[in-house]
Amino acid sequence: MSIDINSAWEELKNRVQNCQKCKLCEQRHNTVFGEGPVENCKVMIIGEGPGEEEDLSGRPFIGPAGQLLTKILEQGGGIPRSSVYIANIVKCRPPDNRNPEQEEMLACSEYIEAQLLLLRPKIVVAMGNISAQWLLKSKQGITKLRGQWLDWRGIKLFPMFHPSYLLRNASRAKGSPKDLTWQDIKALKLKIDEIN
Ligand code: URA
Ligand code: URA
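^ inputs. structure came back:
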């Protein structure tokens, strides 16, 4: 990574830390910028927004949904969590884990866009309705969108079910969200190997 990108990354992180562009800043304990490799980033996973544990720690996807995400990546796909960059559409926790509002996502969107443009991952995985619909500017549901190779400004975009949805839908029957996610993570791994 060039020095320029490195300093741009640090500056962006600082701007997020001090951000007061929407009301989510009022109740946050920490902003959650994201974590993972910045140099040579192949895959970026984009969730919705921090939950309680993430807000308290400042790290993305470390609560129950995050632990399931790690398991899906590592056990389902053979993809080490540490090999992917993990971030969210909004950087501050929406109270009571409600969905982020349109104006909150709009206020925050410059940050995820800057992260995408600086990292230039080969693949973006959009987790769940909020993330997929925001990035694609689509009203289609995740059940329709998941498992397809789509496009975000020239970057491959692959929507998947959100792990918190899988926590609420425990069935592993054929065609269940978990079963489909198992297929999707394998398709993701194949694509990663293909572009290597
Ligand atoms: N859910 C998300 O969408 N992101 C997190 O970081 C944690 C839970
Ligand atoms: N609703 C969501 O927001 N995400 C899913 O993955 C499924 C339903």
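The chain has one domain: 21-195. Residues 16 and 31 are 7 Å apart (CA to CA).
thumbs up if we can close this ticket
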